[in-house]
Every structure is written in C-alpha cells, then in structure tokens.
Design goal:
This protein is 23% helix and 27% strand. It is an alpha/beta fold. It binds alpha-L-arabinofuranose.
Length: 502
C-alpha cells in the first residue's frame, strides 16, 4: 500500500493557467486543415476556423496559444499575412516540407482564433531573417491605439480596435533554425530587438520572452542571461520577463526518434524516463536564471515540449504527423505534474503542437476529428489552472525492465483549485501492475470524492475508425474514511480525484 500524504494547509505556489498552454505553427496540417479551413470550406467553420476543433479546444479551457512558430517564426514576414487574401504573397515553407504557404492565415486570423478560444495571445517574432523595424511595426500594428501609419493600416484591413498581445517571443531557437547564432550574439540582438517591442498602452504590458536553450544547453542559458543582466544605462531595467526552454521526448535521440505506436516495454519505460528528465532541466536552468535576475523574477517558459517520434508511414516527413497512445498520455501527465511542482519558476508551457503535428491533442482527416489520449489528459488536468500547489508526497518504488532505466511507479501533483476543492492528479507508470494507495489529507475531513481515469493497455490509441477507444471513465475509490481515501490505481493510467472537504 503506497502512502500518499497531502497537506491542504500548506500552499507552495500559484499554478499559472498558462502552464497548460498550446502551440500552433505553420507546419504540416496544424494550422491549415487542423484549425483553419477557410470561410468557403464545406467543413463547418466560423470565419474559417473549424467548429469541431474549436469546440474541442474550448472544452480544455486553453489558456494561451503560441504562434506562428517554431522555426517558421524566423522566416515569417507578418506583412505578407495581412490585407485581402487574394493579394497576399505566397512563400515556400522551407523548414516544413517545402510546401507553398499562401499566408491566408495571418495576424487577423490568429487573433480571431484566440477570440473564439477565449485564450491569451503569444506571438513569436522574427529575429533570424527579420528586421528590428519589422518587429517593431508588428507590435505597433497589433497594439497601438493612437494615430500612426501602422494603426491606419490595421484599420484599413478591417480592425478598428487594437488587440492584446500578452506574450511576445523575440526569436525562436536562435541557436539553430533561428539563425545558428552564438549565445552572446543572440543576446545582444535580443537587447536591441526588445527595445522596440514597445508598450503602447498603459493597461497593456507585453511579457517579453528571450529565446532560451535546447534541453541541457546550460552554456546558452548562462551566456544569454548574463548578457541580458548587464547594464550601462542607469535608467535601464530588466530586459526580459521570461526565457524559453525547449525539450522534446525522443526515444533515443533527435536522429533516432522511435515509433509512435509500435513500441515494446523497454521503449515505454525509456520514453517515460526521458520525460522525467524535464524535472532536472527545470531545476538546473532555474538555478542559472536565479543568479542573473535583478528587478523581478525571470520566468522559465517551456514553450515547446512533448513527444517527437518518427512520423506515420506514408505521410510527408516534413509534416511531423504522428499517432498518440497511452504512452503519450503518461508523458503529458508527468510533464504537467512537473510543471505544477515548479510553478514558482515555470509560468507558461506550450505543448507541441495543437493539431496534427507531434503530440497533438486533436487529429483531423477531412471533415473528421478525433481526440487523442493527450487531449483527455489535459481535460483531466484543467482543474489545476489558476490553482494553488499543495505540499504532497507519495511513497514510490522503482520499476522498469533494465537497471539503468528504472523510474518511480507513481507520479503526482496536488492543488487547491479555484473551486475550493483539492485536485489530485496521479499517474501509474507501470505497464502491468496496479497499486493500492492510501491518501491522507492532513487536518481535514473529507466530504466527497469524485474521480475520472484514463486507463488502457499501453499501445491503445484512438483512430478515425475507433475514435473512442481511449477516453476517461468515472472512478470511485474503494473507501473514504475521515481524512483518508483508499483506492487501487490500475496499470498504465492517469487519474484525477476531486476532493470536497467539510
Ligand atoms: O515543433 C517543431 C519544431 O521543433 C519547431 O518549429 C522548432 O522550434 C523545434 O525545433
């Protein structure tokens, strides 16, 4: 019996809703087909956004959406994506499949999508191949409400009021696809570009994000942060609100990614072990950030995370289309628990990506749409959005198939939700063993416990032929006495318990 201690009286930090953010890039069928089908499509849509996908995403209470990339961001020229669609420039999407990008989804369409989703906006600007002026004018176009050329242009394109840009990324992966820069060179460019990401309205402060490292590139973090905290001018203040971190879970490496559906137990445990590495990455990068922040904390923004396997056979390799199994569900559950536990530092995280790309929450084929196991995990975890992290500890044992890849059998996080209830999310990482658990809530009397669980065999996934093979079902604990909940968590599962206290 695993003892699980929860202290509802000890709050450890605020869980920013944006920890459950999403990312949509002009990549494969993410934007086009996945989200945007155009006003003339036979697929039911509102202003070009497909209704089924928007409805599904609204159910997740998506807090924030990052766009337009990714690698695409550093070759995107925003002015190509405004004005009458028939006049918009066509370009080659060189990073992703070499396909024609017709720019029919641009700034106005992104803002419309966020309006329909009711989410915050995270725009990623172009440092790699764009100019300071271009970035500056984009921000002016979107957010200025006075008299200016950019404001007039926006109005001429049909939008009277400025929009809100909540987050702005200055470049993406500038150590790689965003220009292959050295950290010092990028950091100096960041200092320059961010100067012109102006706050035009008193009530509108843009949260600026510097392009951070890939996985364990601590040298990048160190050099960028040290360059950003170096000042000559007495009136200058902290230059960035956040810095990003990208970490994808591959089976072996970025050149040997493994299969999304066809895997064995060894590969199951290896992927979960590699996912848990996120915890170490956050700790070590946070320690570096802490040494350089000055006026206020610099947030760690994990704006790309998720599984990255070989794409589905027969699909365009540049489109990164992959299936999504119970293994992905566990990867999502573990990562979201880790972000909760680091909510003091991680203020936003964005799964890659929203539709039809990498660890997608929805997959589409023509007019059909299916929800992936990862979708259901986000739905089970949405209770944590805006909640307070609670102190918790669970007894675990090491499991796995080879000594070097052992992982804990259970993985949890607990919060006090905005609804005043305790929310427990617990993952069983074992492929075959159920574990009895006794949860003890300190100094509490429990009134009621409700539960929902996602559980299936490890390869289980949804298809267009069988769209509901994996979906959550109700879960009832075996017993609730005083401040204790007794239950058995089945193998290979993601569980959410909602506890009402007296
Ligand atoms: O999400 C796919 C790609 O992964 C992004 O474009 C890039 O930022 C990262 O390398």
């Amino acid at each position: 019996m695993a003892k699980f201690y929860i202290n509802p009286g000890h709050k450890l930090g605020h869980i920013n809703p944006e920890i459950q953010g999403h990312f949509a890039e002009h990549l494969g069928r993410c934007i086009y087909e996945g989200v945007y089908v155009g006003e003339d499509s036979e697929i039911p849509n509102v202003n070009g956004m497909r209704c089924d996908v928007v409805e599904a995403l609204k159910e997740l209470q998506i807090p924030v959406l990052r766009w337009p990339g990714g690698c695409f961001a550093d070759e995107y020229h925003w002015m190509d994506g405004i004005g009458p669609k028939e006049k918009r420039k066509k370009m080659i999407n060189t990073h992703w499949g070499g396909v024609v990008e017709d720019n029919s989804f641009g700034t106005h369409e992104f803002m419309e999508l966020c309006r329909q989703l009711g989410c915050k906006t995270y725009i990623n600007g172009n440092v790699g191949s764009g100019t300071v002026q271009e970035m500056s004018q984009w921000v002016e176009y979107m957010t200025f409400d006075g008299v200016s050329e950019m404001t007039e242009l926006r109005k001429a394109n049909g939008r009277e009021e400025p929009w809100t840009v909540d987050y702005f990324g200055v470049g993406n992966e500038n150590w790689g696809c965003g220009g292959f820069m050295t950290p010092e060179f990028y950091a100096n460019l960041y200092r320059q570009y961010q100067t012109y990401v102006r706050n035009y309205r008193e009530d509108h402060k843009i949260f600026k994000i510097a392009s951070g490292p890939n996985r364990d590139d601590y040298d990048w973090m160190e050099k960028v942060m040290s360059t950003l905290s170096y000042f000559r001018h007495p009136r200058s203040n902290q230059l960035t609100d956040g810095i990003s971190l990208h970490y994808y879970t591959h089976l072996h490496s970025s050149s040997d990614k493994g299969e999304a559906v066809d895997f064995d137990e060894y590969q199951w445990y290896k992927v979960l072990k590699r996912t848990m590495y996120m915890d170490e990455l956050i700790k070590k990068h946070s320690a570096i950030i802490q040494r350089y922040e000055r006026d206020y904390p610099v947030a760690l923004i994990v704006d790309e995370w998720g599984t990255w396997f070989n794409c589905e056979p027969g699909t365009n390799p540049g489109f990164l289309y992959q299936q999504n199994t119970m293994r992905d569900a566990l990867v999502a559950g573990i990562n979201l628990n880790i972000f909760n536990k680091h909510c003091d530092r991680v203020k936003m995280a964005n799964i890659a990506q929203m539709a039809n790309v990498l660890q997608a929450v929805v997959l589409t084929e023509g007019e059909q749409m299916i929800l992936t196991p990862t979708y259901h995990v986000f739905n089970l975890y949405k209770c944590h959005q805006g909640a307070e992290l609670l102190e918790s500890y669970i007894e675990t044992e090491e499991i796995g198939v080879v000594p070097e890849l052992m992982i804990p059998n259970l993985h949890e996080s607990v919060s006090l939700g905005v609804d005043g209830k305790v929310h427990i999310t617990l993952n069983n990482l074992s492929t075959d063993t159920a574990y009895p658990v006794e949860a003890v809530l300190t100094d509490t009397e429990i009134a009621e416990v409700k539960g929902e669980i996602l559980t299936q065999e490890m390869h289980a996934h949804n298809t267009f032929e069988e769209p509901e093979k994996v979906k959550p079902v109700d879960f009832k604990p075996d017993n609730v006495i005083g401040n204790k909940i007794m239950f058995t968590i089945p193998a290979c599962s993601v569980l959410h318990l909602e506890v009402a206290m007296k």
